[in-house]
Amino acid sequence: MKNPESLTNTQKATLAQLKREGGALVRAYELKESLRAVFAGDLDADTVTDMLGKWCSWAQRCPIPQFVKVGRTIKKHLDGTQAAVERGLANSRHEGLNNKVRLIIHRAYGYHNAEHALTMIMLVCGPVTLELPYHT
């Protein structure tokens, strides 16, 4: 789960040993790292699309069924991925807001009605700004 540059010396030695032995685990690691490399730099959309196409072909030839499935899924949505890279779009802000709302709902478990939970969501996430008297 770590980036290769963040590995400790012991982890680097373990990884080198695994690479010498080969197998499905090493293949999965190499596929994961190559997919991470596709989105790591500031590449133009055509380069990313080309690299993703090659990655999908590699993943679909892999004996690991999960990677075959991921390769098919990425290839199926390649046009949308290219559009997202061209326009620089991501849904990370929406995911962050969704996570914040779910946390508030979880904390609001003891509220007597949904209106109180909705009020808390609007207070935390909405356009409401409170100015306390001692801030002026």
UniProtKB/TrEMBL annotation:
Pfam families: DDE_Tnp_ISL3 (PF01610). Coiled coil: none annotated. Residues 2-118 form the Transposase IS204/IS1001/IS1096/IS1165 DDE domain. InterPro entries: Transpos_ISL3, Transposase_DDE. PANTHER family: TRANSPOSASE FOR INSERTION SEQUENCE ELEMENT IS1557. This is Transposase. The lineage of its organism: Bacteria, Bacillati, Actinomycetota, Actinomycetes, Mycobacteriales.
